[in-house]
Structure of HTH-type transcriptional regulator BetI:
Amino acid sequence: MPKVGMEPVRRKALLDAALRVIGDHGSLAVTMSDIARQAGVSPALAHHYFGSKEQLLIETIRSLLRQLRRDTVAALKAARTPRERLSAVIRVSFHADQFAPDTIAAWLAFYAEAQRSEETRRFLVIYAGRLRSNLLVDLKALLPTDAAERAAEGAAAMIDGLYIRQSLKSAPIGIAASIALTEDYLNALLSTPAP
Amino acid sequence: MPKVGMEPVRRKALLDAALRVIGDHGSLAVTMSDIARQAGVSPALAHHYFGSKEQLLIETIRSLLRQLRRDTVAALKAARTPRERLSAVIRVSFHADQFAPDTIAAWLAFYAEAQRSEETRRFLVIYAGRLRSNLLVDLKALLPTDAAERAAEGAAAMIDGLYIRQSLKSAPIGIAASIALTEDYLNALLSTPAP
DNA sequence: TTTTGTTGATTGATCAGTCAATCAAAAATA
DNA sequence: TATTTTTGATTGACTGATCAATCAACAAAA
């Protein structure tokens, strides 16, 4: 079987498999065997390439974050005005890929894990900071600084909250409605001070 | 040692211990031994009274929910106008007990668990429904029905979002600021349609 | 003596992680 | 070109640790 140059292929397959299995299972309490089986290799190979389960998990969240950033950068590039850019940030947050049940479950699992793993928390703090900062930079063009800061906190919280509520699967709010709610929030804040 | 009537004492001690250990550890992946040790009894006793780890965990979240409802009912009783009642609901959500790091970590762990455990999800759906409904009933007195419904969804999401962001412990938003953000949101929605 | 409370010891299952061995492609050599 | 050697890829089998769950036994109250 062995062909040279399999390493990147296997790494990617294992990362994808990990995300899939975690999302499916809704928890980080998945076995290396589960992940390896999903990737179509032996458990030993997963250890061979990642050293430990913890490392594989950390690489998994890192890849999740990387994907989110890619999407965000792309969406921002297409937007012109500050208001458009705000909408772009919101849209990316609720993009179908991000809003898929498996992905939501995986994020949730990582939030829980962050209570224990310093490194996992670091990554989530980075995510939270980016979201806040992406919103803040454009809000500052539309509101006084302190109002902009509060608006950024509020919008970020609402996005995360809509996200987490989605994970319960009852009363599915839906992508469009989630976007609309967040937009309404910003519209209300943007129109209130200056009628 | 054995005195009659220990059962309720032990049950409560074990439930408190479970909450404590889960919050401390930031995950449901705690052992019966950990919980039993925290409660000052043997692991075997925990099984004796709860039958299984899963059952103990379910009783734990049930007690968390019971406490929240008690607080909410008490807070609502003291409020007079719809607007006051809305503030009461918000205040309870961010009450010090609920906002304690251990409690937040425990809620988070249960959210993750809900992906797997049908019964855990049921409880969280009940929580989400109550929060939404508590907000909705008073919002309907202040807004048209459809606007009230959207406001209730949005406020509930923001509350949950502020909650989950708190779990990251970086950029601690704080109780007062969290309440203020949520109040601002409602104020903006309540003032926008009628300037 | 019966009942209630309690535990230590044990079991069976599950898993992360290790390791020696195997296999096939690629590179070196003849 | 034909061969041998080297190297990367891969796995099955195993180990050590952990843990939920069980159970037989014991202690104290009723």
Summary: Chain A has a mean pLDDT of 91. Chain A touches chain B through 48 residues (CB under 8 Å). Chain A has ten helices and no strands.
